[in-house]
Specification:
about 60 residues; five-stranded antiparallel sheet; about 45% strand; globular
Length: about 60
């Protein structure tokens, strides 16, 4: 469950024209959400510092 502060931050990011908010389903069925900073040939880097390699990702949903 996300905190009120995290929810507010996500809502503000979604209001921006250039938002890259996504929901990622990992191979272990865990779901994570956040904003993509960049995607490389190795994986996806999120704005909050998290990194997900493509081998760990089952599905990506969102507006890119």
């Amino acid at each position: 469950m996300i905190t009120a502060k995290e929810r507010e931050r996500l809502q503000n990011q979604m209001k921006r024209d250039e938002s890259k908010i996504v929901n990622i389903v990992l191979q272990n069925a865990q779901q994570v959400a956040g904003e993509i900073e960049k995607a490389t040939h190795q994986g996806i880097y999120m704005t909050d510092g998290r990194y997900y390699g493509y081998e760990d990702i089952k599905e990506i949903n969102g507006a890119l």
